[in-house]
Design a protein that fits this description.
Elements: H1 2-18, E1 21-24, E2 30-34, E3 40-45, H2 54-95
Antiparallel strand pairs: 1-2, 2-3
Length: about 100
């Protein structure tokens, strides 16, 4: 049982490292690739991004980063929930 828990924890750590989400602003000016926990990996600005004011670009970039990191957090949470549910269901079956 403990080995199974350790393998599931290792799986959760692997998921955290590998989870990656891409978000693109509605106008396509900003593309962000991010992982969970605010891990921004790539910010890509298209040519039309430079037509925006500094304030507009900053707000658009921040919103796109938030979209990507929120989705990465959601995906990771769901994957970990599924992983841990398997462990607890197996433990419950063993005690019956």
């Amino acid at each position: 049982m403990h080995g199974d828990i350790h393998s599931k924890l290792a799986e959760a750590q692997r998921l955290a490292a590998e989870t990656e989400v891409e978000a693109v602003s509605e106008d396509g000016a900003v593309r962000v690739v991010a992982g969970p926990g605010g891990d921004v990996r790539i910010i890509d600005l298209r040519m039309n991004a430079f037509e925006l004011s500094g304030l507009e670009l900053g707000e658009l970039t921040a919103a796109t980063v938030k979209t990507a990191t929120d989705e990465a957090d959601r995906e990771l949470s769901e994957a970990i929930r599924r992983t841990l549910t398997d462990v607890f269901e197996a433990e419950r079956e063993e005690t019956l």
